[in-house]
User: What shape does this take?
Amino acid sequence: MPTLTRRPTGGTVAGMNPPTDLEPAAQARALMRGRDRATLASALPGALAVPQGNFAPWPYASLVLAAVDHDLAPILLLSTLAEHSKAIAADPRVSLLFDGTGDLAQPLTGPRLTVLGHAERTSDPRLRQRFLARHPDAAMYADFGDFHFYRIDIARAHLVAGFGRIRWIERTDLVTDPVSAALIEREADIVSHMNNDHADAIDLYATRLLGRTGTGWQMTGIDAGGCDLRRAGAVARLEFAEPVHDAAQARAMLVALVKQARTVT
Assistant: This one.
């Protein structure tokens, strides 16, 4: 049975942030996995940005929904009619800003992470499933002819964790979560089983371990480092005390966590 030392690391969009005592790469990973949206910045061709001038590319930023894969790669669902898709078609270099400032009275004291990478269109059904589990409402338009999924291959990241706490993080330091083919293969089964048969346990994770409120929380994904939860527009991230690599280890961890949750008052 895993030995657990728990502390909340997930958050709603305007809620809890990763602990500030985490080392920068760990804080960056928790921030990415704990958010379900980001600001996408790309280089919009000058002819589109300023048609009468045909100038050099212009920086262009817009809000997007995001999911994160097992290897930390962000997953996006974009329409070819959107300006950011036109920009990516011309130049695949993008940045994603994951904002953890929430409702802080002094937003600049909160964490935010800019992830640099290259966007590539993908038809991988597993990435589609992972995104739609995170954003179930997107299923209404995901099959429209102009919508496509994109995977962001991370190059590096820039973390601003508050005043004076600024750090560039290289890909080799950021992308360290173990990726297990055995866990990936069983992820959908684990998530479905937890949602259908152990909804009470998921509510305990959210309320007792993460300090959230309400019932009806759903698990949307599980990876080596933790699991993702959602209730309406709120999301939360439950980090594991140690990595899990297959369904058996995931089950043992989830059982241990629900036992711990029942001891919390």
